[in-house]
User: Fold this.
Amino acid sequence: MSAEPTTRGAAPAHDDAEKGTLEITRPAPITYPKDEKKDPFADEKKVAVAALEVPATKEKESAPPPPKTPAVKPKKKKVSKWVLWQLWFNTYRKLFTFTFSLNMIGLGLAASGHWPYALKYNGAMAVANFNFAILMRNEIFGRLLYLFVNTCFAKWPPLWFRLGCTSVLQHLGGIHSGCATSGIAWLILKVVRTWQNRSNENMSILVVGLLTNIAVFLTACAAIPWVRNTHHNVFERHHRFVGWTALFLTWAFTIMGDIWDADTHTWNLDGVHLVRQQDFWYVMGMTTFIALPWICTREVPIDIELPSPKVAVVRFRRGMQQGLLGRISRHPVKEYHAFGIISEGTHAKYHYMICGVQGDFTRSLVNDPPRTIWTRELKFAGVSNTSTLYKRGIRICTGTGIGAALSTCIQSPYWYLIWIGSDQEKTFGPTISGLIHRYVEPERLLLWDSKARGGRPDTMKILKEVYASWNAEVVFITSNYIGNSEMMQGCKEAGIPCFGTLWDF
Assistant:
């Protein structure tokens, strides 16, 4: 039901955007010659900025006065091993364990001769697993699944059932990795069986089978959490491009295996025979699920606001529903980065992404702002998209986490926003501040400026008080690694249902 990343090395307690601007001078506005670059939203910018300006009286009304004494962070409380175990063995690992164990039982029965069907069609078992693994990561399937759950189970079922729905949707990656790992095991069995029957097989089939195994194995290794978290570009390039290579090799291995007649030692080029094989259609499904999201990829005009050296606020055309994330890149097929989407609703003219400067890509948005950017027009759903399942909830975030949290509180009056950061208005600019003060009423808003208040708050004390007074059913957390861990552990000990940020999955 909740997510806790595995233990790792030292992680920063705050990201750059949380630290505030301190004494750093705001960068000078970037200007371009008229014949070189043109603002794609020139006619609309003045109107939009004026509409988002924050009245001074409302700021005073919604922002509580800073305390006279600096905030004192409480000593870290030792967390019980049972709580840590519950957070570690979360729904992701449960789904992975179930999927992988079920496959290994079937593989054992097939290899021992107790399941003749699976032994005969071991290639189909492999590509069926890959098919399901890819489906779990397909944006269109994910959006349809979220739509079904949010439509059918909003508010009326028991709380435990709704929490279970959110948990399963958030951790579909467990099925993805479980099926992918199992598919590799079935593929190894397929190649081993081909080798055992090599006297009746064409050696080219065995060679292509070995190459397919290597490509699939490298694709899986690129998705290991350590690689994903510390070398994101390495992960994406290998997982995508080696994965595409594995798909082409899978096509070759499947077709060659289907049209080779082991009895006559000849190639059966009858197309009717080929399309009657089940593994052919499984590979067709894999190809379709991989290709569909790329059909929605477009290069779109953007407008970038630079309120501080640490943050770029990217504005796109058209409004969005809450709880979505989008992938953007300077290149049509590589180095995509996901960010939360802020929007007033589907009726709005714009939606926004907050990009905190942490790597080469986000730094380039500040140093060399582009006029256009590549994105998938069909956005994918995040855990916040299930906020419609709950009667009342709390959305707590730190720093740039406001990008994933704000839309939920803008579009629903039943969600309470807690944002912890440093000098938020100066760091994130008037656009984000204007959206908050315009759409989130003071009675369901707590902005904690750690610079003005002298430090970070006791987040668990705040959460417990707001959880009780707001009569909330669930807490959604978006924070850095340490902040997320502390709040997840605290909520688990306090018996508060919560969902946090995912890194490893």
Notes: The longest helix spans residues 232-259. The chain has 21 helices and 15 strands. Residues 228 and 235 are 5 Å apart (CA to CA). The chain has a mean pLDDT of 85.
